[in-house]
Every structure is written in C-alpha cells, then in structure tokens.
Design a protein that fits this description.
This protein is α/β, with parallel strands linked by helices. The chain folds into two domains: 124 residues, Rossmann fold (3-Layer(aba) Sandwich), CATH 3.40.50.720; 118 residues, NAD(P)-binding Rossmann-like Domain (Rossmann fold, 3-Layer(aba) Sandwich), CATH 3.40.50.720. The radius of gyration is 20 Å and the shape is elongated.
C-alpha cells in the first residue's frame, strides 16, 4: 500500500520520514525546480505527471491508496491537478500546509498584496529593496533595474540580473541575527516576500519590524476546497487511518 507525497517542503520530508519509519511504502514527488534538493527517505521521483490524467495513471500503476499534497503554498497547478485526480480515481487526498504569517503578532503592521506586480507598485518609492519572492517572480521587478536591489535565491536565476542588483545564494532556515545583519549592511528600505509561513524564514520579518523596515507580503493564492491539515502529526494520523480502512476493506469518505 503506497502513499504519494507531493512536494519537497520541510513538512513533506518530515512526513516521509515518519511514514517510512512505520514501514509504509512512500513515494515523494518533487517538481525538479530546485537544484540538489534535500531528499526525503523512501522512494523519490522528479518531474511532472502530464496533468491530472497523467497523475491518475501514475497512481494506478503504483497502487497508491492516498495522496498528501505538501507542495509550496504558491504551487497551485499541481494542487489543482491533485484535486482533479482525486475526483477521477476516488483516491483520498489531503492537503498539508503550514500556517501562514497572518496570525503573526505584527502581521497588521505589514502591507499585504495579491501578487508581485502589486508588491512592486506598493514599494514604488523603494531605493534598496530586498526581494525574497523566488526566481519566478523576478521578471515582475525588472523595471527596478536602475535600483540597488538585493535578491536572495536558493538556486541561480535563469536569466542575468540587472547590473546594479546584488544576489545572495542561500537556503534557510535563517537566524534573526543573520537577517538583521543583512538588512543593516545593505541599508534595505523595504522587504518584499511571499506568505510562505513557517519558522524557517520568519526571522527576516521580525528583524525588519524591529529595524523599522517596511514589509510587503504577497498573500497566498486561493485554492480549491480540499481537506487541509496544518501539522505533520495530523498528516501521519490521517495516513494511518486511510491504511486501516483500506486494510479492512471499508469505504473511505
């Protein structure tokens, strides 16, 4: 009985480790957008499925009994495909998503926008912005080629950055002291990021707030209604319940 985990997030790796330790056959599916990703325990596949029908066929081939969508909060396409696949196959699907930063004590002091274009418009007066929005959003900020933009990425950008931009290559988690040092040394006058949530990258928000640096956050996109969990322990319990129901031959709601 195989469980497919979609995504390479920290939560995905933790879930895979817990299930493999329980003797569950786990396949973790990674999109392949990150070079040298941290691989989880169990079987791993990399790349797309070819839409919902391709994912459905893959699940049938692997005799999967459940799918856990643990992709990044902004990876909407694969989540939509997973939902359609659940309808096509009847295979149970649950979404494991870390809570966003909307409940952070300082969240009301930050500016929340719908997308990267809105973030750029909101921070139009910025001279030394700090972008931590990922590679795919960089084209939206190219009108700032004449500014001293600081960019942080996990992997190298696909295209050359403007000459005045400064690139930092690193992978979280990040410390408060380190984030404060970056903001101070580069005289950052606005921090632009996505509502990734979790604890690995929240330090930049705390450091910026303490330094009085404005924060602009791109809100998470709306998703289709799917049963959602917030913790790995909840996801482990859900997977165990699916296994038990399959084993005794009962139908799964």
């Amino acid at each position: 009985m195989t469980i497919l985990i979609l995504g390479g997030t920290a939560e995905a790796r933790q879930l895979a480790a817990a299930l493999v330790a329980d003797g569950v056959d786990v396949i973790s599916s990674l999109a392949g957008r990150v070079n040298a990703p941290n691989l989880p325990p169990g079987r791993v596949r990399v790349g797309g499925f070819g839409g919902a029908e391709g994912l459905a066929e893959y699940l049938r081939q692997e005799h999967a009994i459940a799918v856990v969508d643990t992709t990044h909060p902004f990876a909407t396409t694969i989540s939509q495909n997973a939902q359609q696949t659940a309808i096509l196959t009847g295979i149970p699907l649950v979404r494991l998503e870390r809570p966003g930063w909307g409940q952070h004590p300082r969240s009301r002091s930050w500016t929340w926008v719908a997308d990267a274009a809105a973030a750029g418009a909101t921070a139009e007066a910025a001279v030394r912005p700090f972008l931590t929005t990922g590679r795919q959003s960089l084209p939206d900020f190219l009108p700032w080629a004449d500014r001293n933009v600081l960019v942080r990425l996990v992997d190298p950008p696909t295209d050359l950055l403007p000459e005045r931009w400064v690139l930092i290559m690193s992978r979280g988690p990040y410390s408060y002291a380190g984030e404060r040092q970056i903001l101070t040394e580069h005289a950052v006058d606005v921090l632009i990021t996505k509502d990734s949530g979790g604890a690995h990258t929240v330090a930049k928000l705390d450091a910026a707030s303490d330094l009085g640096v404005p924060v602009v956050i791109i809100a998470r996109p709306k998703r289709a209604q799917v049963a959602q969990l917030e913790t790995v322990s909840e996801a482990v319990a859900w997977c165990r319940s699916v296994e038990v129901l399959r084993f005794v031959g009962r139908s799964i709601p």
